[in-house]
Amino acid sequence: MTRFEHDVVGVGIGPFNLGLAALLDGVDELDARFFDGKPQFAWHPGLMLDEAEVQVPFLADLVTLADPTSPYSFLAYLHARGRLYRFYFHEQLHVLRREFDAYYRWVSQRLASCSFGARVTEVAAAPAGGWSVRLEDGAEHRARAVVLGVGGVPVVPDCARPLCGDDVVHTADYAGARERALRAARVTVLGSGQSAAEVVADVLDHAPAARLDWFTRSAGFLPMEYSKLGLEHFSPEYVAHFHGLPEERRDALRAGQDLLYKGIAAETSARIFDALYRRSIDGAEPNAGYAARCELRELGRSAGGALRLVLHHLDEDVSFTHETDVLVLGTGYRDAPLPVPALAELAVLDAHGRPVIEADFRVRLRDGAGERALFVQNAELHSHGVGAPDLGLGAHRNAVIVNALCGREVYAVRERNVFQTFGAPGGAGAAARTGGSGAGGIHAA
Questions:
Q1: In angstroms, rounded to a whole number, what is the distance separating the alpha carbons of residues 204 and 286?
Q2: Can you give the pTM of this predicted structure?
């Protein structure tokens, strides 16, 4: 068995760990390696639709909000591709998802620390300290710290699992089923988030003859909060404020914040409504319908082979049936299982069995866990708040992690970034909880 020695190993290479690899490139005191089982970088390929835009400005790239001088910025990518003036004249803050995916791939191909086609099968505490990271090919990589960026997995209702395939798909796999959906006579979409709305818009635009139905159990087809004052919740200050609250207060607060990070972009909502409006000209009725507060209870097939949904209207407390040819599930994601079998034994857990995550994004380990550190990317919604999955905070989180790994301030983590104050005015403030000082780093002596 081949063994290697590193300071840090990243498990999974999505945008967040890719950003960490980019910010660590050139930090000579640390040896870092990142592994992913995919053959190359791929960002939500199932939803890579031609018209889909990134929901954050292009400045929320891998590095800019931590280091605008980095050679791995989106603007550096445009310059390298000879497209900087074209982008300048394009005058858009929000770019196409396809373009950000191409940018991510460009960065991943320039970083020697990133290895694809290298699936991690286990992360275990090494007897002598640190971690043992095992790959599918049998190689073992030893590291003092591990950063988990394993992403999420699609949530599929239990009643739909036996029928998943050509005509029942999650939005994560929509691109592969798109041709079938656009040829179908009847298409139904379940869910009211951005992914579901993008599928609805795509069917409206490209399958005008199809009957389209759209259901959600949520209160409505509501917009994501995107006002400038609301966006200040996606700031280092709010992350620190949220982290400093008691666990039960955090859970209660987050329960009412869905529309800060869920919901439909205003442009997508307008696109859907405008398509329906155009179909209603001269008294016609669009061959489409949508209804909220409808929960899927059963899914099967009719005698004729169509998909048969049993939906329950939560307000009226009545059930009804609905038939369709293709069902697209926009039912969200859950955290992927962490590949650390010993985590329950090593980690301090909160009252709900979740790992306690420190301000600097490391998992709090029990006394006696030894000289090792475990960091997480986008697995800290419960401890750091709604910004956990947001691309705009990825560079900040990675700057904090780099500083913690090095035990010094490699990247400035500023105390004041937004106008709003989240804690009591004149209080202790959030700056002391940002984790940016880097104290207690794990770098090699």
A1: 10
A2: 0.91
CA distance 60 to 73: 9
User: What are the structural domains, with CATH classification, of the chain?
Assistant: 3-151+336-433 (3.50.50.60), 155-224+262-329 (3.50.50.60)
Compute the half-sphere exposure of residue 12: CA atoms within 13 Å on the CB side of its CA.
23
pLDDT in tens, 90-134: 999 999 999 999 999 999 999 999 999 999 999 999 888 899 999
Task: Give burial (CB, 10 Å; 0-12/13-18/19+) of 348.
Answer: middle
Q: Looking at residue 260, what is its pLDDT?
A: 81
**Which DSSP category does 26 fall into?**
T
| pLDDT tens digits for range 329-354 | 999 998 877 777 777 788 899 999 88
Quickly tell me which residue has 């199809």 as its tokens. Answer: 210
Neighbour-count burial for 360-392, b at 16+ CB within 10 Å, e otherwise: bbbbbbeeebeebbbbbbbbbbbbbbbbbbbbb
CA 68 to mean position of chain CA atoms: 23
- Rounded CA separation 109/8 (Å): 20
